[in-house]
Amino acid sequence: MNTILISIIAIPVIEILLFIKIGENIGAINTILLIIFTAIVGIYFARIQGIKTIKSGFLNIYQNKLPIYEILSGASIAIAALLLIIPGFFTDTVGFLLLIPITRRLLLYPIINKNKKQTKEDRTIEAEIIEEKKDEL
Question: Going by C-beta distance under 8 Å and a sequence separation of 6 or more, which residues neighbour residue 42?
Answer without folding.
Answer: 80, 81, 84, 85, 92, 95, 96, 99
